[in-house]
UniProtKB/TrEMBL annotation:
Domain of life where this protein originates: Bacteria
Entry cofactors: Mg(2+)
Domain Nudix hydrolase, first and last residues per copy: 60-187
PANTHER family according to UniProt: ADP-RIBOSE PYROPHOSPHATASE YJHB-RELATED, GDP-MANNOSE MANNOSYL HYDROLASE
Keywords: Hydrolase
GO molecular function: hydrolase activity
Pfam families reported in the protein's UniProt record: NUDIX (PF00293), Nudix_N (PF12535)
Keyword DNA repair applies: no
rRNA-binding is among the record's keywords: no
Name used for this protein in its record: NUDIX hydrolase
InterPro entries, A to Z: NUDIX_hydrolase_dom, UDP-X_N
Length: 197
């Protein structure tokens, strides 16, 4: 277990204790464990003001939904983050009450201006294993192969640029969101099997 997984587990255990302990003294101790863990993380990172959220209910991994969309020349559609100026496949965290397919369609139209149909699930990644720059939040990444139906490429408050790239000439990627290895795996397997990591 690496240090990130250690802290993820410690935070999850303390969250569970806060939510499910019946003894008020235990709840107080679990709150202390959570606060001490946050204080230690802040002392070990460049971000000295990191505020971790206490979750209501049992802590589980979050779900990140991404779309692989190609143009007629098999170039990959990427979106640029306005803050970091790094690129990723369109997508984001899934919303509660919406299916994964509905989420990916919604994210694509919000970030790119395109309406898409979803062909198939290409890959499922565990970000603890596949995205080393990921935050302390543990999440699963689902990548769907989507085909353009209509619309024109447009930016949004979430994207400063939307553009197609040759698979061999990808720009600087936001590796906490998507890696070159993941894009290549999805590109090569878009019509076939689901990659599970």
């Amino acid at each position: 277990m690496d240090s990130k997984q250690f802290f993820q587990k410690l935070l999850a255990i303390s969250n569970s204790g806060i939510n499910y302990s019946k003894d008020p003294y235990d709840v107080e101790r679990f709150n202390e464990i959570f606060d001490i863990t946050q204080e230690f993380i802040n002392s070990q990172t460049n971000n000295k003001n990191l505020t971790l959220e206490k979750e209501a209910g049992y802590p589980t991994p979050k779900i990140d939904i991404r779309a692989l969309i190609l143009d007629k020349d098999n170039k990959v559609l990427l979106v640029e983050d306005p803050k970091t100026k790094s690129w990723s496949l369109p997508g984001g965290f899934a919303d509660v009450g919406t299916s994964p397919v509905e989420n990916v369609v919604k994210e694509v139209i919000e970030e790119t201006g395109l309406s898409v149909s979803v062909s198939n699930l290409i890959a499922v990644y565990d970000t603890n294993k596949s995205n080393p720059e990921n935050s302390l939040a543990h999440y699963y990444k689902l990548v769907y192969y989507c085909k353009r139906l209509s619309g024109n490429l447009t930016t949004s408050i979430e994207t400063s640029s939307v553009q197609y790239f040759n698979i061999d000439q990808l720009p600087k990627l936001s590796t906490k969101r998507i890696t070159e290895k993941q894009i290549r795996e999805c590109f090569n397997n878009r019509e076939s099997k689901t990659i599970i990591e």
